Every structure is written in C-alpha cells, then in structure tokens.
Recover the amino acids of this structure.
C-alpha cells in the first residue's frame, strides 16, 4: 500500500514518515524544494515528487497508484494576523487542499485522504470541555483557514463521495518541533512568561508520536466525512506545565503573577506598535486569551472509532523534548 504525504519535511512529517515505513507502507512525499527532497531520500527509504500544493499543474499525475494520502502541508504560523499572512493561509491551507482533492477526485486507487486540520479550527469556544460536536467559532486567519479547509473536504465527501477524513490535533510538541511549545520554553527560561490568571488554566498539549499514531489510525479506520480530535487524555494546568518545563531546563527564572486585564492591555500596545511598523507582534491578545482559557478536549470519538490511545505522558514527553532542544543548543 502506497501513502502520499504532503508536508513530509515539516515537524509532524519527520515523525510520520518513519512510522509509516515501520508499519510496512511504501511512502511517497510531495516536496516543494529539491534540496529538501534529496535530504528526505538520504534519510528514509521514500520516493519523492516535486510539487507545490498551491500550484495545481505541479500536482498533475501524483495520484497515480496512491492508496492513501496524509495531507500535512500547511502554513502554520498560527499567530500571524497580517493581510499578507491571511492571503498565504488562504492560498496554502484552503487552495492547496482544493487542488489536491481535484487531483485525486477521479483516482481509482485512493482509499482514504486524511486531512490535517487543527483544534484551532474550532476557535475560542466558550466551553471547558470540547468535542467534535462543539459549535465552531474560528476568529484568526489561521483558525478560519483551517476551518474552511475542513469544509472543502466535507463538501467533496458529500458531493462526490470523496474518502476524506479530518484529524484535529491540539498543540503538538516533541522532538523537532519549534512551534508554540518551544516558544513557551524559551519565554519561561528567560523569565518573561508571566503567570497570567490563577495558573490553573487548562492547556491542551499532545505529543507528536500520539498524533502520528492517531493519523495512521484515522487512515486505517476513520469514517469518511468525519472529524477526529487528537489530544491528550486531559489538558495540563499552566502551573504544572511551567513546573515541568523549568525542572527539565534546570534553571530558575521568575514567574511573576500579572492580572489578565493588565496583560491584555500591555499586549494590545505590543500589537499596535507592531502594526505601525508592519511587523507580526511577538505575542497577541488571542495568544493570551487562549493561554487563560480552560480548555480540554474529549477524545472519546477517536478512542472509540479509531482505537486511538494516548501513550506519552507529559512528564516523559517534556523531558525528552527539552533534552533534545538542549542537544541542539536551542534552549
Ligand atoms: N504543530 C502543531 O502544533 C499543530 C497543531 C495542530 C495542527 N497542526 C497541523 O498539522 C500539520 C503539520 O504541522 P507541522 O507542525 O508539521 O507543520 P510544519 O512543521 O510547519 O510543516 C509544514 C510542511 O508543509 C510544507 N508546505 C508548506 N507549504 C507548502 C506548499 N505550498 N506546498 C507543499 N508543501 C508545503 C512545508 O514544506 P517546506 O519544508 O518546503 O516548508 C512543510 O513540510 C499542519 O497541517 C498543521 O496545521 C499542527
């Protein structure tokens, strides 16, 4: 069975490719950069094809003899709010998904197309426990583009029985990841990560190995036209996350309590200054609000329908990830 992966050169792709090979799948990677394609081939036993999901012509013929697709490719700078970022989110996350569906629409071999969305697509929903039925409220350009990319998949499922399945991971961390979790670690080490709110804020976090396992299960067992949240069994309290990160960094740094309204006021000023200089703010009000919200995801659907199991504890995962940041001289 042959699996085409888009976004194989990214964080999740770097874990998904070896996991599929280990399970006996043949892997083909759609890569937009020739040097990166060469690196991938040097590292793993994979085929590569050069293409860009925003360029429909470059995708022509990639569907041949492909049994499964796992579509990771996306623009994921989740905090970006500029007009330019908005256009790139739309082009890659929505347009790229549409182009791939068009290429695979008439495939005679395709059995499943796993689309990577994100719990971000659900936006800041005003409930503590969220599941796939929670009413969505995407607000930022990233959130909206991920939500609309899901609708593109669902439309194809209902219009021409496209075998699409959606997975929605929450914030992913692990070896190789330089996203939001890495930012937490850097800011906490510098002592510039304040304790906003009471510190009990439930923060969703999932290890990359669990996400990879969930995605493969969605490919094998997922129901067409369904979305599955991939998260840990519970969210972690921000105070506990701070404790685990600082313990593993092995350094003391201040963790000063700042009331939410003051933090939001300061961050609003940062946003305004960044806008004047046409730069992305290093932190925005949405980051603060999502840090303060209590959010946890009910993952019953993935467990019951896919057989998803969370294997990596926060303790183990954070230890391994921070050791890796240290080995790379990044923390
Ligand atoms: N990381 C998280 O915390 C998180 C959480 C929830 C959901 N997700 C979703 O999970 C998926 C994978 O995330 P990730 O963290 O692995 O992302 P990532 O590290 O940013 O990697 C993105 C990948 O997409 C590729 N790509 C971007 N634009 C492309 C284009 N136009 N054509 C072809 N390939 C393109 C990149 O290729 P280059 O190497 O050439 O740039 C890279 O391989 C994404 O859909 C993301 O939205 C991630």
């Amino acid at each position: 069975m042959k699996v085409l992966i888009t976004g194989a050169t990214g964080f999740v792709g770097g874990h998904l490719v070896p996991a599929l090979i280990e399970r006996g799948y043949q892997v083909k990677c759609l890569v937009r950069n020739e040097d990166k394609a060469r690196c991938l081939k040097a590292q793993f036993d994979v085929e590569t094809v050069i293409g860009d999901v925003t360029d429909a012509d470059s995708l022509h013929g990639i569907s041949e003899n492909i049994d499964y697709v796992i579509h990771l490719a996306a623009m994921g700078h989740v905090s970006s709010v500029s007009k330019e970022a908005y256009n790139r989110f739309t082009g890659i996350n929505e347009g790229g998904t549409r182009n791939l569906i068009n290429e695979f629409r008439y495939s005679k071999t395709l059995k499943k197309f796993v689309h990577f969305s994100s719990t971000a697509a659900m936006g800041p929903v005003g409930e503590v426990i969220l599941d796939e039925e929670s009413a969505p409220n995407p607000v930022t350009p990233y959130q909206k583009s991920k939500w609309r990319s899901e609708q593109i998949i669902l439309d194809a499922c209902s219009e021409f029985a496209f075998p699409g399945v959606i997975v929605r991971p929450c914030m992913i961390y692990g070896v190789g990841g330089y996203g939001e979790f890495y930012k937490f670690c850097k800011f906490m080490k510098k002592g510039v990560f304040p304790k906003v709110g009471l510190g009990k804020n439930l923060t969703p976090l999932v290890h990359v190995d669990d996400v990879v396992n969930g995605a493969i299960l969605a490919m094998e067992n997922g129901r067409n036209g369904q979305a599955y949240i991939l998260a840990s069994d519970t969210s972690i309290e921000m105070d506990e996350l701070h404790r685990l990160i600082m313990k593993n960094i092995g350094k003391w740094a201040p963790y000063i309590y700042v009331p939410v309204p003051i933090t939001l006021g300061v961050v609003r000023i940062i946003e305004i200054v960044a806008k004047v200089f046409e730069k992305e703010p290093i932190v925005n009000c949405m980051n603060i609000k999502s840090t303060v919200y209590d959010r946890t995801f009910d993952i019953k659907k993935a467990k019951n329908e896919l057989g998803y199991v969370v294997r990596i504890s926060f303790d183990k995962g954070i230890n391994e990830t921070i050791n890796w940041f240290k080995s790379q001289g990044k923390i």
Remarks:
- The chain has a mean pLDDT of 95.
- Residues 6-7, 9-13, 32-33, 36, 52-54, 72-76, 92, 96, 116, 118, 169, 171-172, 179 surround NAP (CB under 6 Å).
- The longest strand covers residues 26-31.
